Queue: 2 jobs
Job 1
Amino acid sequence: MKVTLTQLRAFVAVARAGSFTRAAEVLKMSQPSITVAIKQLETALGLRLFDRSTKMLTLTKASANFLPGIERILSELDATLADFQSVAEGSQGSVAVAVLPSVATFVLPSTIKSFSAAYPKTRISLRDDNSPGVYERVLSGEVDLGVAGRIAQTTGLHFEPLIRDPFGAVVHRSHPLAAEAGPVGWDALAEYPFISFAADTGLRPLLDTLREVPENITAPWVEVSNIATVLALLKTNVGIAALPKMAVNTIENDVVFRTLLNPPLFRELGLITREGRSLSPTAQNFVQHMKDVLRPQWVR
């Protein structure tokens, strides 16, 4: 038995309209096409669907029982197709994103706000990690995309620069270096215990690119694995650190940030995606919203 959607839709339209002419208008088909579809459906089912008279068109007893089930099937199909269309347009679906904690704090709130307003039916899953962890989550397929710093090992991944985040000297509010505002040179950090990062982090390689800086920068007093630990130590005023500006909430952490110069140092943050894999429409929309939020800070 071969039954087509066109035949089923024609049957429902005629049954509800009570007329082949009105059903043709509803479906935007010609009346002969509707007539042919009904005849083909009757042949396929081996069942008369309508009793016809000169003044009235009515469902047969068998087709009256048949109608509710067909309407339910078509309704469910239309709903499913609408969902497919929403996913294709990116207005419905889900997107998983891995980001640095600083990005989660400073970038994502405004991104998610604008994105959710435009696409309220889209679900967002966030994972925060250090840069190597973000890369690994993207590479494994755990997430659709990531935002993190550039690292050396990026096989199978694509990095698109988005932000240049300047480093600054970060000290407790009671520290002598907090007495003045404005930029400060690396030489000014020489007298104080320096807190830095372990070699397997995303920030330590950037600090290691510096030349002709005080010895306490290249041979730090203590090394840690994440920015949260650095800030916890700074809150006790046991040392100083050099951190990217986006990583520092000066009010919450009771610290002062002074941009470092001579030379300036920047952390480059970017979009990480898998090479050879296109993003879903939903993920593409999320990326576009994030870029709109970050546009003033884009790398030129």
Job 2
Amino acid sequence: MRYSLKQLTVFEAVATHGSVSAAADKLALTQSAASMSLAQLEKLLGKPLFDRRGKRMVLSQWGLWLRPKAKQLLLDAMQIEEGFAEQQLVSGELQLCASQTAAEHLIPDLISNIDNNFPQLRISFSVENTAEVINGLINYDYQLGVIEGRCDDDRIAHQVWCNDHLVIVAAAHHPYAKLERVSIAQLEQARWVLREQGAGTRRVFDSAIQGTIDSLKVHREYEHVPVLRSLVANNSYLSCLPYLDVIKALELGELVRLNVPELNIERSLSFVWRNDTPENPLRDLVITEAKRMFKVHHRDM
């Protein structure tokens, strides 16, 4: 094997930061040392890994092919080093990204549980909508994701974590709040604020109303659930949000759950990862702990 882990590390850093100088700063190397490592790797492989566009370094087709393989190799090397250094089989770092509902209501307890029981396992954590979680996995930015709803991309494997459901909510002062049941026609007449396109919640809602509701008066679309909750509570809007995100507002009387018999919007929260990645004991451990934790703490959801 002619190439070195150092050369692959420099390659990955340049791919991430877009320049040799930024990669050198990140790795605490001189720029000349980083340039030399990258040049040696390209010479050994016999292919250009980057297209030079001014000061920017953009991955070539060969670089795009190499990057996921190099990243997995570097992650495996790090896990080997840290595992032996700590004499711990459960050690190292896992990159996790979750959509908003799971990030707010489930992931904090999961990370706390991992910290208590597996202190050598570090979880780096990001929050994105479902579409961006999938994109991040495809680009090897994350090793594990949590999404709302489903993913039909055949590059992605998934495993259901838990079931959830969406509810249609209004303010307590909204005219519909006093009704025993709300019709589809009344939903079509209302003004709505919803999650943005690409969000798992929005995908599930759009799928549920397809063929039932011809059009909605969508007044605003926002990424952040607290903004939507506040708009509904203080105005005459409707929204469709995860039960986990509105349960406290329902208990406080700030929001009212509308009874729409024609709509029963069930969904699941699922773990997702790339199909082509090798077995990962840290990923498997996190999934197992998450399922155990949910079973203990959310029996009645």
